[in-house]
Amino acid sequence: MKIDIDIYNEILNELLVSSQVFKGVSQEISLELKEDFETIVEDIDISKHSATYTGGVTKTTLDLLEELKQANMAKDKQKCAESIACLRSSIMSAESALSNAADSLEKLVVSIRDA
Known about the structure:
Blueprint: H1 6-21, H2 27-43, E1 50-53, E2 57-60, H3 61-74, H4 77-114
Antiparallel strand pairs: 1-2
Helix pairs in contact: 1-2, 2-4, 3-4
């Protein structure tokens, strides 16, 4: 499954239009939205993530997924737990980006409503 990140850029464009159309929305909120959506675009496709682990070994999310598959087949509990913990950090990165954007959207809603 391929992630279509264009939707996030389209959402951002319309949010920025909204922030300009309605008076009372601060420039700070617009900048927050831009930063948050740029982060989403960078972080949402976790297949691109990689991290360096103990011993200087760099693994991508796809490497970790393969390790998890192998651990499951071998019924290796320790390796399975390690792979899941590492995959969790990739997912948390995407979750954090989405959460930050949700907070910025709430600020925009409040600014428009109270304007």
